[in-house]
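Annex B, item 7. Sequence and structure tokens for protein A, then protein B.
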Amino acid sequence: MKDFFPILKSLKKQKIAPILLTLQVAITFMVLVNTAYMIGERSKKMQRPTGLDEANTFYIVTNFLSEPHQVIAEQNDILRQIRGVEGVVGATALPSLSLVGWGRYTDFYLEPNGNSVGFGGYLSSDEHALKTLDLEMIAGEWFVPSDILETDKEGTFLPSQVVVTQALAQKIYPDNWRDIVGTTLYFNGAPHHVKGVIKTLQNAWQFWSAVDATVLAGVNEAQPASPSHIAVRTQPGRLEEVMNNTVETLLKTPGRKIEKMSTMREVRQKAYKEDLATSKILTAIGVGLAIITALGIFGQARYNVSRRTQQIGTRRALGANKWDIVRFFMVENAVVSSIGVVIGLLGAIILNNQFVELLSINPVPLSYLLAGTVVIFILGQLAVIYPATRASRVSPAIATRGA
């Protein structure tokens, strides 16, 4: 405490250098806190569960060979072939799948001519989807074979049995999401009876605010103008083997083509490629700023040591020990860092408010601001230790020789 006022007096004399260093600390704090928060938010986003057994699931896209009125029968035959491959746990036809980037969405209504009560993604499949996708039923019942409609048209326009995700149920019935079971949802002008609720099933778009709000209809759909999209789940550890055997099995049919095949891990990696790249860029920016600030503090401390050699020597001659000298420079750095953190704190809040408006993210939590404060202080103290230790080794005799 006895060094505090001499330090303030010293900083007042220097003016420009401490002000520049304070601004550098403030900017670093402001950017570092918001960068760390954005990286954390993106990391949470990339780790959200799809609801599928991703490690053992792939999807395959193949062509239809039959006449338009026979595509349903052909798709059922394709499914039988795939289910017969050793190591297959389940296979089901889906016009879209989690995170693939293409699919259908719709608004939901509780009355035919009422107001929209929510929106979300639409998927359709059969009674095999529960096992194939490894979905978790948390309310109501799953489809039975008699629930499943078969059509060569778009299934969203057909009255059907549906299950919904918990996220969608909570959106429509926020007080008690279980109340949705047994109700009728209307979309695309058709009534759909809600049989049950599944815990999680993400729809096609990872960037969408309604990615977890999904309705799965009991509709086995095959359109002549589109290829057949089939999700396949394998026994653990047999993914690659089953993929190869599935291709071999399907290609035994003359004219059959495999238009696309991908694992769910590859789908996730592709879906979040931009988020991962952005996180890496933000990390590089944060680390770079931290290094630049540390070098700035280090350089300022070294300059102060060389400029105050005589002053240091005088203090040593008057009885100051090495620790007193080290403490002086560390406290001086703490004062500069404190002022910088206060300014940076205000700047971080202002910058975050802009991000909240532009990017629709949540405000930065207090924990990030506290963590940023600790990091800046530790960074400053580590950067000043070497110059301060070097200053403490100045001999009183050498330092005062020019007096």
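Protein B:
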Amino acid sequence: MQSAPGSPNKVRAEWCNHLTAIVTPPLEAMANGRLRKTMPRECAEGREEYCATVCHLEILGRSLAGIAPWLALNQVPENEAPAQQRLQQWSRDAITQGLDPQSPDTLQFDHTRQTIVDAAFLAHALLRAPNELFATLDAATQNRLIGALRTSRQFKPHDCNWLLFSAIIETALFRFTGDCQDEVIDYAITRHEQWYLGDGTYGDGPELHHDYYNSYVIQPMLLEILETVATRNASWAELLPKVSARAVRYAAVQERMIATDGSYPPLGRSIAYRGGAFQLLSQMALRKELPSEISPAQVRGALTAVMHLTLDAPNTFDANGWLQIGLAGHQPGLGEGYINTGSLYLCSTLFLPLGLPAEASFWAQPNQPWTSVKLWGGQDAPADHALGPDS
């Protein structure tokens, strides 16, 4: 079992320190045009050429996807302000470098179908912090960014969670230009409605997979898409309450999956995304839409335990501070053929609640045990219940 947590203020400081430690190497390097020179490219044997093609856009989009809400927070605690200002500037400069065709770190949006994936996480970051990550860019960079997102249209997504990658890119284009391909969004929404399995869980395609893709991709992106584009289509607006209710239920499931020590079942592919497995729970905390039976403080405790277990293990980072493949330390065998150093930065999405002010209940409530700690400690609690079939 985890040792007793510190005060809420101390815990928030720990979160901030962990997040800044994760994203500083890639964002600082890219902001200064040094990402290609300094970024390690750990990947499966024989995948080096593929990794070299995709890893730079991958690490940028995934780093920004997690840090975006905190970058957008107007009033951070005084002790966080210097780091926030520094990372705000690096994030803008990194995007600018990536879209500058003369930069040594210019990004490739037209080389492989993987572009859909990596551009989607960048698009999600833009939607999470539109003012900080888009409005503050110069006009030339904005135009290049829009053009780059449109370039990804040349690639056809696989008929699985990848549909949401194309859809969230179109959603970002709608958010920033007022124009998008509605049919791409509608197809992704329709297919995932067909793939809904019940009790807050979607199939990744028509069949169930025991993995964390409901949290890595499906539910966070589906919510973001529907909320942004609901005004364009009455059927999308009608579906949003159902999708939200499912996300609330899945957040409850995720909270119950976190054991007393912060461990969780190492199921399925992409387990090297570490705490990114709980992006949906973190997003629902950020949205203040947690299940009524779960307090923000107990989610804070559970996610803090996950943070420490997945990021404090020896050899999680290399000697220069870059993440290495693994779940609890350096475990390169956990990396599938599509996993590289850039992929690992989806763990930043664990930290979405840093986008809440320090006065929010998530940060201000006194420490409370999460469900596993309560039940395995002998406390009584209400029974769990499945979500009804109408949702």
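Comment on protein B: The first strand starts at residue 196 and ends at 198.
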